[in-house]
Structure formats: structure tokens, C-alpha cells
Design goal:
Elements lengths: L1 E6 L2 E3 L5 E9 L4 E9 L6 E7 L4 E3 L7 E6 L4 E6 L8 E9 L5 E4 L3 E5 L2
Parallel strand pairs: 2-11
Antiparallel strand pairs: 1-3, 3-8, 4-5, 4-9, 5-6, 7-8, 9-10, 9-11
Length: 118
């Protein structure tokens, strides 16, 4: 099994920054990608940013230019640096890990709340 533990959420004013971290442990081999998703009240969970094992990244349009995803492979950790935060970024942010050789299985963290408000 895979365990994902997120940290770094909180309350921040509009225009501020936060850095989310997600530490992976357990059966962390054959990792295809890690990413961050978010879910706001009443909305579906959506991709924020994703990074593959080869280092390719993709971002939601709303995140481009403001958020940066990165990894520390030695620490099996993925980060999401969020700058210029807006109230519409308010959501629960979930870490995701995809692993597998012939099929891909997704694992999820418990989520961390990000609230952008003055």
C-alpha cells in the first residue's frame, strides 16, 4: 500500500503564498506520476498540477504562471508552491500518486484545506 501525508495548508490573504508538501511512503515503486488536485464545496475534484516520473509537468489553466509543482525524489515528496493566491483557490487540496507497470493505480492523501480570504 501507499500512504500520502499532506501538509502546508492554511489561511492566507489574497495575493499571498503557500507551499504544500506531500510525503509518500509504503510501496512507492513503479511511480508514474504525482500530482495535486483540489475540490471546492459543491464542485468536482479537479487537477491542479501533475508531474511524471520523467519530469514532465502539466497544469490547470487556472494554475499556470502562479503554481509550481516539484519533487524531491530522495525524500519521496512532492511540493506545490502557490503564489498570487486568489479566493477562488480556496479548496481542499489532495495529493495523488499513480503507480503501476501495466495498469495504473491512484492513491490519495487525506487532503489539506487551503483558504484564501481577507
Amino acid at each position: 500500500q501507499v500512504q500520502l501525508v499532506e501538509s502546508g495548508g492554511g489561511l492566507v490573504q489574497p495575493g499571498g503564498s503557500l507551499r504544500l508538501s506531500c510525503a509518500a511512503s509504503g510501496s512507492i515503486f513503479s511511480i508514474n506520476a504525482m500530482g495535486w488536485y483540489r475540490q471546492a464545496p459543491g464542485k468536482q475534484r479537479e487537477l491542479v498540477a501533475r508531474i511524471t516520473s520523467g519530469g514532465n509537468t502539466n497544469y490547470a489553466d487556472s494554475a499556470k504562471g502562479r503554481f509550481t509543482i516539484s519533487t524531491n525524489n530522495a525524500k519521496n515528496t512532492v511540493y506545490l508552491q502557490m503564489n498570487s493566491l486568489k479566493p477562488e483557490d480556496t479548496a481542499v487540496y489532495y495529493c495523488n500518486l499513480e503507480r503501476g507497470i501495466y495498469t495504473s493505480t491512484s492513491y490519495w492523501g487525506q487532503g489539506t484545506q487551503v483558504t484564501v480570504s481577507s
